[in-house]
Amino acid sequence: AICGHGCKYGECMGPNKCKCFPGFTGKTCNQDLNECGLKPRPCEHRCMNTHGSYKCYCLNGYMLMPDGTCASSRTCAMVNCQYGCEEVKGEVQCLCPSGGLQLGPNGRTCIDIDECSTGKAVCSYNRRCVNTFGSYYCKCQLGYELKYVRGHYDCVDVNECVTNTHRCSLHAECLNTDGSFKCKCKQGYRGSGFDCA
């Protein structure tokens, strides 16, 4: 089976027919499925969508149980956690619904970890890190675009000279470079390439 546009998070099952891995959707399985919007809802109280998955958390005063349900807890109500809590060896600990969040100094609210600035994020060559609340994703560097090439998605150089997205002077030549472009004044003209006289 050949899928001309590829199956980013899935496998090709027939001519241009993708079977998506759990948590993904779309014709080429390139979109994250928002499980929190599904009916029936996957979480009893609150739901946080994540890339390819989701996390459940409870309202204050409730404790997240191993099966994802929320149980009323007097001890949790007293601690006043932002995202519910768990009891470990008789001690109450507040929870954060994602590995990209950490407990704040007060031990009750969750604050975002900026994976891009802490170096925890792993983005391949020619991709840049974009921080999100509780996570991050990798985006093509400026001057590159995501394309399906030779069986997988890759960030490919945009030829600004062909797409006409350069700002060269009418009296200049556009020269494509990796991730960018240069402007060179034509013979008989002088200047920066953006302005030629």
From TrEMBL:
- Keywords in alphabetical order, please: Calcium, Cell adhesion, Developmental protein, Differentiation, Disulfide bond, EGF-like domain, Extracellular matrix, Repeat, Secreted, Signal
One annotated GO molecular function is:
calcium ion binding
Principal subcellular localization: secreted
The domain of life is Eukaryota
Record flagged with keyword Repeat: yes
Matches recorded under Pfam families? EGF_CA
* Residues in EGF-like domain copies: 32-71, 112-150, 157-195
Tell me the compartments it is located in.
Secreted, Extracellular space, Extracellular matrix
One Gene Ontology biological process: cell adhesion
The entry sums up its family as follows: Belongs to the nephronectin family.
**Name recorded for this polypeptide:** EGFL6 protein
The species is: Sula dactylatra
